[in-house]
Amino acid sequence: MSMLAQLVVTGVLVGSVYSLVAVGLTLVWGLMDIINFAHGDFMMISMYTVFWLYALLKWDPLVSLPIAAFVAGMIGLLTYKLVIKRVLNAPGLMALLATFGLSLFIRNLAQFLWSPNYRFVGESILSGKRLIISDVIVGLPQLVAALGSIGMTLAVALFIKKTKFGKAIQATAQSREIAELMGVDTEKVYMFTFALSGICVGVAGTLLSGIFPVYPESGAMYGLLAFVIVALGGFGNIWGAFYAGIMIGLAETIGGFYLGTQFKYAIAFLIYLLVLQFRPKGLFGW
Amino acid sequence: MRKLLAVLVVLLSFVVMAQEVIKIGAIFPLTGAAAATGVKIKYAVEVAQEIINGVYPEINLSLAKSAGLPNLNGAKVQFVFADHQGNPELAMAEAERLIRNEKVVALIGCYQSSCTKPASQIAEKYGIPFVAGSSSSAALTERGLKWFFRIAPHDGMETVFFFNYLRYLNEKYNANIKRVAVVYIDNEYGVHAALMVKEKIKDFPEFSLVADVKYPVSATNVDIEVQKIKAAKPDAIFHASYIGDMTMFVKKYKEFNVVPKVVLSYCGGYQDPQFVVNLGKDADYFAGTNATTPALFAKMPILSKINEMYKAKSGVDIDGPTLEDFASALVIAEAINIAGTTEPEKILEVLKTHTFEAPYFVSEKIKFGPDGQNIYSASVMTQIFNGVYEAVWPEQYQTHEPVPQFPDWKKR
């Protein structure tokens, strides 16, 4: 029983971080209908930001968080300005290919600048600390990562739902032309959404930098899982992405433990395929 | 006048011959998940190229004494690098490109066994020699290939070495090690290592296999893997993992307080010096086979000189897998030199029959058996103490006594 409890806790912690990566993606894919293949690479850049601030200035990852999030946000904004804007009115495949090229560029640039070595943020105020609640071990870095992810998801969801600008994002997602007719500056909406997406993944990268190695391919698997989670949760649905992330985390840990650790991602992808068969819009899509 | 012209033509032809460049393909993961190791191997192969093409009288190797290959009029050797990114299909495509377009006369590579396998099949198809340095899957030399040779001990040899080491710890230190777990990445390297454990354990009846934990390539976390290991309560853990995943495992062992007696690693992440850099004190007491360790440099002056050249490029000491790939570059160049030609059949004959000097290995020589496997294992068991890889077994190479029990994580 304590093993099952341990697996559930681990699944929720792992899934929460997946969720935050996916929330950033669902903003641009779900709302703007643009597939950003470089999404995981934005996360990698934020992880390097944290690593270098730690290695050179001995800053704790939690202190670096605003800077790393800002850097990832700026990369999101620049991606829109320099890449996406130019292919916005072209067939959808163009934006997809452009971001795929951008992903390759960012990874290779990271390798060129910082070498392909695996690096870790060795010491932080959280590292090595853990809570033990009746045989269930919870690593403090994972707990903080999960809580940070939940907090950030909540903030983004409230922003989209409650603020005027959030409503402009929703309007643009439903119909760009009509939103423009209503006076929405869609250019600004796109730009800001990309920046917000970058901030989300930047926060996720910062929270992960204490538990996952920093290297040029750091974001690859997270990026891939984020695509599955967005499709599973329903395009553009922030809470959908959140719940789907938790679901994938639980499927990975519980399924992986009982059916074989080598199948942990296969189980997650199988759930995704099954859901798409019955609900192509995703579990929480409209 | 005609005589003068004839002499000039002969002289010129000698100059042209002397400037001939012999190309050898070198396929490694220069980008992608294993690029950290691949780039280091590239530096080592570049050092081998410098030794072959330059004059280094202080290094007692036949190809270091004169510039280029002496039996081919001082022809220079050029290693043409290709990047397989850890992708077997790309390794195959690059092997084909190097042979057809770059006209390489031999191939070395590919670090990951999963890439060495298809790339060496292409070399077999075209009938040119392939010398693998560090790829350790035993399956590579079980295919009956004519053109394939491998320097590193394969995982079957490593597994027997591991069990013999455990037996030594039980006998000498009364370590009481019985329960073994194998943890491995889901690729050619890991899967075959695990297969070897299941096969070889039958010859060591005092041990039992209590956990078999396979994890996906590019895992985002290893939480459940470590929980499975912890539940099995192994005395010894055999790891077939690369640097990124190995580091994550150690962090999780600490978090979940997994305290085995020994952790032994196949040729992979443990041997990368970054392992100690990343983990600091937490890397202590981990162990594994290694073709070399900095602790041995003081005893081996040629290795020390090679390391000096390597460190100037890479910034770190040479490690086991890197030294094995360095050896592959020297061996193929020496085989071409002894053959005195780039004709594949003649190079093959040398590779099959010659015993190559390798004073940078503890075994000091390399000789390939009928299956292409180097019959002289260069490995020693190393264990990390205060961030230093010390040789702990066999006893004649010992630089530190082994510790057959992990201390509690809190007491480090």
Helix fraction of chain B, binned, reads: 40-55%
Give the % helix of chain A.
Answer: over 70%
- What is the chain-wise order of helices and strands of chain B? HEHEHEHEEHEHEHEHEHEHHHEEEE
Unreliable residue runs of chain B: 11-18
Q: Biggest interface and its residues per chain?
A: A-B, 38 and 35 residues
Biggest sheet: strand arrangement of chain A: 1-2
Structural class estimated from helices and strands of chain A: mainly alpha
Give an overview of the whole structure.
The complex is a heterodimer of chains A (286) and B (412). Chain A has 286 residues and is an all-alpha fold. In chain A, 75% of the residues lie in helices and 3% in strands. Chain A has a two-stranded antiparallel sheet. In chain A, β1 (130-133) and β2 form a beta hairpin. In chain A, α2 crosses α8, α3 packs across α4 and α9 (218-233) packs parallel to α11 (264-278). The longest helix of chain A is centred in the first third of the chain and has 30 residues, at 2-31. With 412 residues, chain B is α/β, with parallel strands linked by helices. Chain B is built from 12 helices and 14 strands. Chain B has helices at residues 2-18, 35-53, 88-100, 113-126, 155-173, 188-200, 223-232, 243-255, 274-279, 301-314, 320-339, 344-353; strands spanning 21-28, 76-83, 106-109, 130-132, 148-150, 179-185, 208-215, 236-240, 262-265, 287-290, 356-357, 365-366, 380-385, 388-393. In chain B, the strands form 3 sheets. Chain B has a 7-stranded mixed sheet, with helices on both faces. In chain B, a hairpin with a 2-residue loop joins β13 and β14. The longest helix of chain B is centred in the last third of the chain and has 20 residues, at 320-339. Classes of the chains: A mainly alpha (286), B alpha/beta (412). Chain A binds chain B through residues 3, 6-7, 10, 14, 107-108, 111, 115-120, 122, 128, 130, 137, 139, 211-213, 215-217, 220-222, 225, 252-253, 256-257, 260-262, 264-265, and chain B through 31-33, 35-36, 38-39, 186, 213-216, 218-221, 223-225, 227-228, 231, 243-244, 247-248, 251, 254-257, 274, 278-280.
